[in-house]
Amino acid sequence: MNTYYAANLLIYAGVDIIACLSLNLVFGVSGIVNFSFIVFQAVGAYTTAVLSLPPDSTSGYDFQHYIGGFNLPFPIPWIGGALAGGLLAIPVGFVVLRKLRSDYQAIALLVMSVIANTVITNADKFLNGAAGLALVPQPLSTQVDPSTDAYYYLYVGITAVAVVIVLIVANRIVNSPYGRSLRAMRERELAATAIGKNPVAMKMTVFIVGGVIAGLSGAILVGFIALWAPSVWLYPETIILFAAVIVGGKGNNIGAILGALLVPVGFEEVTRFIPPIGPVGLIPALQWVAIGLLIIGFLWFRPDGVRPESRRVFEGGPAREVR
Amino acid sequence: MELIRIPGVEVRRVSRTAALPAVAMLLLAACGGSSSTGGGLGTGDLLVGVIAPFTGADAGLGPAYLAACLAAAPSINNNGGVGGRQVKCQQFDTRGEPADAVPAASQMIASNHNLMAVVGCTSDEAATVAPIIDRAHIPMFCMTGQSEFNKTALKYFHRLVPADIFDAYAMVGYALYGPKHQAYQNAALVFGNDIGSQAFVAPATNAFTKLGGKIAINQPISLTPGTSYRTEVAQMLASHPDVILTEALGAAGTYLKEVKTQNGGQMIPFIGTSATIDPTWFADVKAAIGVDDLVKYYAGVDLGYTFSGPAYTEFITNLNAAASTMADAPKYKQRGSTLHLYDGIIMTALAMVETNSSDPTVYNPEIKIIANGTSGATDVHTYKEGVDALHAGKTIRFMGAGGQNNFDQYNNSQSGYIWVNYDAQGNEIPIGQMTPDQTQKISAAGGI
Amino acid sequence: MDLYLEALGFGLVSMSVIAIAAVGFTMQFGITNMINLAYGEVMISSAYVAYYINRAGISIWIGMLAAAVFGAVFSFLLNRFVYAPFQAKGTSLIGMVIVSLAVSLMIANLLLPIVGYYSVSYENATGDLLHFGPIILTTNQIAIIGVALLLMLVIHGLLRYTRLGKAMRATAANPTLARNCGIPTRRVIDVVWLITGALCGMAGTVAAINSDSFAIANGASFLITVLAAAVLGGAGQPYGAMIGAVLIGVITELSAATWSPQYKEVVAFGILVLVMVLRPQGLLAKRGALAAAG
Question: Is the domain B40-162+310-398 a CATH 3.40.50.2300 member?
Answer without folding.
Answer: yes
